Amino acid sequence: MAVTDEAILKIKDMILRGELAPGDRLPPEKELSERLGLSRSSMREAVKALEVIRVLDVRRGDGTYVTSLEPRLLLEAMSFVVDLHDDDSILDLFAVRRILEPAAASLAAGRMDGERIELLRRQIAGIDGSDSVEDLVAHDLEFHAAIVDAAGNSYLSTLIESLSGHTIRARVWRGLTQDNAVARTLSEHAAIVDALEIGDAKLAEALMIAHISGVERWLRQWSVRVPADD
């Protein structure tokens, strides 16, 4: 298990044991990391992840608090992490995306016009390193949907849209735990647009395969990856 995930589960245990109740303020970062036997960098990543899934509320200049959720809702939010760890079907979904979306990119290359290319480039330009993980995932969904729409096959579009909706959790988690996820995603998206703009169907297909395969590879490695501590 990755160190960040271990930190998340230890904070979860503190909540379940009643050491932290809804509305309580977390101990200072240094104290909490020493108490749990984890590095401060791991604690920061864990807090950031728990803020995204609404378990913790980070109030700038005040501290970090457990959200005032009822126990049932709190446990439901924590299932975000557990489900992603235990559900191997997510890999199957990405494997199917790896088959269908490159085909869509290949079809789209022959149908692209200046307006569609400009839309894709505006989507990329609208994201930078200061945006939240949710903003990056929203961009990713819109970007891929625009390419699939350009392919002009409604059945293919429906299939991919259904698959994509089931991979949002994995995309959020990748954005939280993978180094340079924003820069990597935007760079790969830009390369795909370049291929679409010149109408190179084979290149667009190959770049889309590499793009989706990167996320799939990260998923396979995630459960055994242990990031460096400070």
Automatic annotation (TrEMBL):
Q: Quick check: keyword Transcription in the entry? A: yes
Q: Which InterPro entries match?
A: GntR_C, TF_FadR/GntR_C, Tscrpt_reg_HTH_GntR, WH-like_DNA-bd_sf, WH_DNA-bd_sf
State the taxonomy lineage: Bacteria, Bacillati, Actinomycetota, Actinomycetes, Micrococcales
What keywords are annotated for this sequence in UniProt?
A: DNA-binding, Transcription, Transcription regulation
User: Mind telling me which CDD domains this protein's record contains?
Assistant: WHTH_GntR
The record, for Gene3D superfamilies, names: GntR ligand-binding domain-like (1.20.120.530), Winged helix-like DNA-binding domain superfamily/Winged helix DNA-binding domain (1.10.10.10)
Q: Which residues form the HTH gntR-type domain?
A: 1-69
- Is the keyword ATP-binding in the record? no
Q: What is this protein called?
A: FadR family transcriptional regulator
